[in-house]
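Shift notes (night). Ran 2,4-dienoyl-CoA reductase (NADPH2) while the centrifuge was going.
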Amino acid sequence: MNSPYPHLLAPLDLGFTQLKNRVLMGSMHTGLEESNDGFRKLSAFYAERAKGGVGLIVTGGFSPNFRGRLHPLSAQFSSGRAARAHRNITDAVHENGGKIALQLLHAGRYAMHPFALSASEVRSPISKFAPSEMSERQIRNTISDFAKSSELAREAGYDGVEIMGSEGYLINQFICKRSNNRYDAWGGSYQNRSRFPIEIVKAVRERVGKDFIIIFRLSMLDLVEQGSTHDEVVELAKALEAAGVTILNTGIGWHEARVPTIATQVPRAAFSWVTERLKGEVNIPLVTCNRINTPEVGESILSSGQADMVSMARPFLADANFVVKAEEDRSDDINTCIACNQACLDHVFKGKRASCLVNPQACYETELVVAPATAKRKVAVVGGGMAGMSCAVTAAERGFDVVLFEKAPQLGGQFNLAMQIPGKEEFKESIRYFTRRVEQCGIEVRLNTEVNAESLDGFDEVVIATGVKPRMPNIQGIDHEKAIDYQTFIREQPALGGRIAIVGAGGIGIDVATMITEPENQTLDEWLQDWGIDKSLSHEGGLLPAPHYVAQRQVWLLQRRQGRVGKGPGKTTGWIHRKTLEKRGVELLGGVSYEKIDDAGLHITLEGQEHILPADHVIICAGQESVNGLVAELESKGINAHIIGGAEKAGELDAKRAIRQGVELAIAL
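Came back to this:
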């Protein structure tokens, strides 16, 4: 039988060992590394991914010493005790047919504590603490610590280590002039600045022997000023190969870079060309990464020769069985990562456990367990949005008889609107996946169906997941022909004039502002140029001089609240939204009072002064209200209803909460 993805699923011979396919599960910090009983939960997490067929797993980052920790209580791997504790993880992976490497990460100046060390005393723009410059002794000790931790990783049963040399962490800080202004043997010339990573690799290889995987995460595109040039990247790659590296993994962008690299706005496989530029320069396998989330994308990259392996991290949060489904030619059954960052990176940066918006069981494998129901019951789920579908699917998986009611002609709810926002096209994948699961679980679906209490007689459990509707603020003239609510606008997409006022600067307002200022049919090359990325790699760090933008229309994004406008709900993506809107000339105004809408436009008061915004259209994005009128009707008939998603709490359009609520409720029924 021919393989559906012959390049993606081909084995990779490393000489002393073989990987069963070309898929690397990239490093992700989950928060379990430091939590109570975290290693038992981590073992279950990695075991599921190994069982799902991934070729090689890389753990979240562990520091080789105390000063390299990201936070004072962050994970460290430097003792026999740690090695013994990690045996649970490696045994679980090997028992399920997988291979796993431990990532060693020294935070350097990114450390969130006063003991931070770096190549020089140069504070990062995203750090609270200025680092101390490392002494010769500290450098030598750190090299030794990397080697010792690698040897311990082998004792712990790991198949290899990944040395984190990208993303702006310590090793990257030595490599680049941006953070290394030393004048000794570890600074100055590029040969001196790149000496640190080379000495680390040599020391590691000497301690672990020849038959142990060493992956080096090499920053091939820094995306910061005073970053490496392409020629320097090639020079270092060759030196790392000579020092004993088995696999070179691509790193894109420092954490302080002001260019999006993994958010949903980034086109799929947007940086595989970077890895391709290194092909032919070295003779060891190259891994490419960033926004690869389907087998088709991975196969295209490998078949075209851009890389030897593909790294996917968050896609394995979304679906542990990604590779198995690819092997079985069931791509449509994959729960696709939509790169929203909301439950993974946003959680980690807030000190919470990572999970996944579209798969709440990620990192909760031992807690959110879908067990067979003790008695079969009939469940009605009213509302076919994401909360309703997740609840219906999980209930059906438990063995309940489920009927899903939806008043619209299709399932998907608010995601049908979200997928039309530029940069959120991936949301259609979630509709596809959950709709597919509804079909596979044999759930009866009744579309175009308005439900009342009488129609729910005979059900043992009733779940209300009827979502939200736009909240219309009390503004004089809100019914003027210029005014339109966001749902109607996104659904019907009427022709707009050249001047648009948007009332409300929450997530929906930002989405609408993005939608109406998006360049038409933008290609990948145009997207790269839009963000100042030098595809020729002739500039340091891969950054072009700031381009000049010409606004296509005049847009005002307004909010009642004083303070920063356009921040957005996501901790790791809010800055992207704001920068996007600023580049496109959107005027961001906070502390606005709305007076009226009339033929002249939108009348506002700002800082005590009255203004008229001569808007051709006023799009209302002033929040949502829950649609749950059916609840009172059910209660009057003595029928107990469970309320989830937007019907329970409108707020922002919180799909993360909605999907998780659906799963949790179905497990609890």
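The first strand starts at residue 12 and ends at 13. The radius of gyration is 26 Å.
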